[in-house]
Design goal:
By secondary structure, the protein is mostly helical. Helix content is about 75%, strand content about 0%. It has 13 helices and no strands. The protein is globular and about 55 Å long.
Length: about 325
């Protein structure tokens, strides 16, 4: 049930707000055709209107209509981003890592298990990004926007949970089926997140950099902290993610006139979710090391694919919220 609640609902909740425009009906009712040489401006106009429709639905009063990637100096932006990441690492380590390991450092089997888990996490995120881009270029994002939002939520949860639990319960000895289900899980996430490709690549790149910085600093704390120090967080985090998930469903069931309630549900979704999934990152890293010790004693099987799925879900949820927060900041500066 914990994994059921740790799904990113932001895209599906935004789909409810897509107006039933003539552009969406045109895309839904007719096949995609290559642009005619005599009407280059018309095809461009259809794409621009579809992109603007998604941005207006996605922002729910906070996403910017456009994103200016040319403003400012690139070097200063890189230095600013690096300073944020470095400061986050230092501050997180000072606050949460006062008690370090007592065994003189990480044993080789723990280090190997953790490195392989991070490698599979990075590979899974790469598959999600590539698949999302490919689906978007093939017109999947348009069709997803035209679908019923409840159908998107239902089919998305069935596909995600089905492939995820299939991955969990497939033994690591069954190599082909294990990695096949894991790949299907990543492609399912890509299908749900592909409409994010309507947003500007610069915004997505910044959100990705901040997500990596946040998760990297928290993972460093989890890897170097005292053994099993943060494993007690599992129960409180499950309660927190339940509240966050319910706030994510709020725009699907509440009327647009309940502005104050929607505003507070949005804050819980954004900032509460960022805190909860940051905590999950800390918990999951310590859980990986705990499972490494258990597998070393022969109590459980060594399965880095299962461990990587949890970290992938943490990354997706943090990344989506980073995109929203950066978009809101850019919109406030205009």
């Amino acid at each position: 049930m914990a994994f059921f609640l740790r799904r990113p609902f932001v895209v599906t909740s935004a789909l409810r707000q897509v107006p039933k425009s003539s552009t969406a009906r045109f895309i839904h009712n007719s096949p995609f055709k290559p642009a005619q040489a005599s009407k280059p401006l018309g095809a461009s106009s259809v794409f621009a209107k579809s992109r603007q429709t998604f941005q207006n639905a996605f922002r729910r009063t906070y996403m910017q209509p456009t994103y200016n990637a040319q403003g400012g100096n690139l070097t200063s932006k890189l230095i600013y981003g690096a300073a944020i990441v470095g400061g986050t690492v230092l501050a997180t380590n000072l606050v949460f890592n006062r008690e370090t390991r007592e065994d003189g450092g990480m044993p080789e089997y723990e280090r190997s298990f953790l490195n392989e888990t991070f490698m599979h996490t990075g590979l899974g995120i790469g598959i999600i990004g590539i698949a999302a881009r490919a689906l978007h270029m093939n017109g999947w994002s348009y069709r997803l926007m035209a679908m019923n939002p409840w159908a998107v939520v239902g089919l998305g949860l069935v596909g995600s949970i089905g492939t995820m639990f299939g991955t969990f319960y497939t033994p690591p000895e069954n190599y082909l089926m294990k990695y096949g289900l894991w790949t299907a899980f990543n492609v399912t996430q890509a299908a749900l997140l592909s409409p994010l490709m309507f947003l500007h690549p610069a915004l997505l790149a910044r959100a990705g950099m901040y997500t990596v910085g946040m998760m990297g600093s928290i993972a460093f704390v989890g890897a170097t902290a005292k053994q099993e120090k943060y494993l007690y967080l599992g129960g409180p985090l499950l309660a927190g993610v339940t509240i966050v998930a319910l706030s994510g469903f709020a725009p699907l069931v509440l009327p647009a006139t309940a502005a104050r309630t929607l505003m507070w549900s949005e804050r819980i979704w954004l900032y509460g979710g960022l805190a909860v999934f940051g905590g999950f990152t800390l918990y999951d890293v310590q859980k990986v090391l705990h499972h490494a010790r258990l597998s070393q004693r022969g109590l459980i099987k060594r399965d880095v694919v299962n461990e990587s799925v949890s970290l992938e879900l943490d990354f997706i949820n943090i990344f989506v919220r980073m995109v929203q927060i950066l978009g809101m900041r850019s919109n406030n500066r205009k």
